[in-house]
Amino acid sequence: MATNYPVNPRIRAFGKARIDIAQRAKSREDWERLWKRPSHTFPFVWGEAWKQCIEYKVDDFAAEVGFFIDVLGLPVNAFDPNYAMFTSPHGDFFFAVVPTPEAENPTPPDAFRLQFMVADIIETTKELEGRGIEFEQPPQPCQAGSSLYIGYFRTPHGIPVDLWGMVKPTNPAGEHDDFDEEEDDLDEDEDEDDDLETDAGEDEFDEDDDLDEDDDDDDEEDEFRPPKKSQLLPRLNLPQPRIEVADIVEQAEVEEEHDPTYVDLDAA
After folding, report:
1. Which residues contact 265 (CB under 8 A, 6 or more apart)?
2. Cβ atoms of 37 and 30 closer than 8 Å
3. Which of 3, 94, 106, 112 has the fewest Cβ atoms within 10 Å of its own Cβ atom?
4. The dihedral of CA 124, 126, 131, 132: what is its sign?
5. What is the number of H-type helices and E-type strands within the chain?
6. Burial 85-104 (b: 16+ CB within 10 A, else e)
């Protein structure tokens, strides 16, 4: 759906250039080469209270706050008869719920999703189901063969609450067990190396250095994939930007006959 607010074409050009980078980058070196410096720096200096918060409007305020406080057990950061702000025990996030004012519409249930990355998604799901929460989608791999699982339930207003979490891979072939055994063998080899170093001196250190170099070579041989949302665990650390934003605009400009959405940035 198109936005109801006017958009500066230059801003859209910036966004298209960023998306183009994500589509083109196939390696870390590509990211280093293609990623550009933003035109402005981060503008916010945090105050002494909460740092960020989203807010949404509901028809049944009592049901929504009852769910978050007494079912999910979220701590309250602020509360009055017409406002509730929730957080975690350590203040990791903030969001707020308000009753829908007269003559206004409530927030559509699918307007956004609350998403939490948890340490044990299976046990967390069992705990929440024990509290009477019904999962619309039980935890399942985000894609075939992935160890990243996603499940979700909804608040009384209908806001989806996603749980993300890593699940230890298991399969009939026992591949994961073999991996564990390999780790144990590596640990035993390291212990033996320590004994040899004590008896024989510096030559064994040189051998360990060679092993480390081989490990580095193996890592370099692994094919890099452009980061997707399912791989942001917890976030992508993009390379330090080194090129000015003017390069983004130049990259975003395309010939009009090849792109019907072309915008003349100089005329905008």
Report:
1. 9, 10, 13, 249, 252, 253
2. no
3. 3
4. positive
5. 7, 8
6. bbbeeeeebbbbbbbbeeee
Q: Which residues are paired to 116 by β-bridges? A: 163
Both tokens of 72, joined, read: 């999910």
For 193-216, how does the pLDDT look when each residue is reduced to its tens digit (9 = 90+)?
Answer: 555 454 544 454 444 455 454 445
Beta strands 54-58 and 94-99, pairing class: parallel
Give the whole-angstrom CA distance, residue 201 versus residue 207. 11
| C-alpha triplet 122, 127, 131: angle, nearest 5° | 140
As given in the structure block, the two tokens for residue 203 are: 């030559």
pLDDT higher than threshold 60 for residue 142: yes
**Whose structure tokens read 């990259």?**
251
Q: Which residue has the tokens 């993009």?
A: 238
Provide φ and ψ at 181, rounded to 5°: -65, -35
Read off the pTM: 0.64
Beta carbons within 8 Å of 12's beta carbon, 6+ residues apart: 263
**133 exposure class (CB count in 10 Å sphere: 0-12, 13-18, 19+):** middle
